[in-house]
Amino acid sequence: MADVPQSFLGLLVTVLYLLTGVSGERLSMFSRVGDNVSLPCNNVVYPDCSSTTWIYNRDGSTGNIEDVTLGKINVDQKERAERLSLGSNCSLHVSNVRAEDVGLYHCQQYLTETGPKHGGDAPVHLSVLTISSTPPVTDLKPNVIMTLRCSLLTDTQHGTCWSGFSLSWGPKTGTKAQVTRDSSCDITLTVTLQKKDNSRKWTCTLTEKGNMKISIDFTSTFSDIEEKTTDSDDVISTLPGSTASITRPALSTTSPSSAGTSNAVKLPISHIMLFVTLTIMAAIVTIHTRRIRPPKALPPQAEEASGIEIHVLEE
């Protein structure tokens, strides 16, 4: 009978070990700035996450930050705390990922609040893919030299990849584009922008031994001009809010019927001018006619009533 408790204790330890899953194996997660990501916890003991603690280590520093303590968000910074939550299977959900979220995360289990850590850690490494432009996007226009830098931010050193990982630009960017590499995960694309590059998408892709892991896009938008291509392939550049040929502040250039409205305005003006001209001419003719017309003789009744005798002189 004395062996029964020992057998039961051994079975309990075995079950708890199976529940923890495979721990110690490092997972790599990739994200872009502004995305949402969920870091899995592979050693969960209590499904309600009451045993789960998440530890965060940034940039390989020795200090650890405790994001989650026994299933509860435990972050002093309000802004970061609002972006963290626990998901299914006690995964750590990070919303609106930022560069400072890069680091090594450890999912740990504690069976009691004051007890020792149970089992090994389940580490998850989060890397963030970034892209930046020089000059800034607001200054992009034709004939400007644009430089795009694509980097993978990691907890060890920014731009440093593990074996088998690399960054590349694609699809084909043209013969005038130049690509340089500071490292396998820090590459730069330099190109002189042309008019055809307005609203063009440039893509940086992270691959592991030829398999794509994540990609990030950048669109070169010319914010200070609008381009309109004619039938002869000529490009007319105008300021925003103006038409290609004439500026009419009272008319909307975004309406599909703006051209028809412009023609409708000219026709009534010509009619008005013609009407005014004809009216003036008619008035002049009337005045001139009245001046040269002889006065009419008064009727006999009028002569008698007036008492005025009219003598007609004969020549």
In words, what does this structure look like?
Strand 14 and strand 15 (211-220) form a beta hairpin. Among the domains are: 22-127, Immunoglobulin-like (Sandwich); 135-220, Immunoglobulin-like (Sandwich), CATH 2.60.40.10. The longest helix is centred in the C-terminal third of the chain and has 35 residues, at 258-292. The chain is built from four helices and 17 strands. The radius of gyration is 42 Å and the shape is elongated. Strands 1, 3, 4, 5, 8, 9, 10, 12 and 13 form a nine-stranded mixed beta sheet that branches. It has helices spanning 3-20, 78-82, 258-292, 300-306; strands at 27-32, 37-39, 52-57, 65-69, 72-73, 84-86, 92-94, 103-110, 117-134, 145-153, 165-170, 178-183, 186-192, 200-208, 211-220, 226-229, 235-238. With 315 residues, it is an alpha+beta fold.
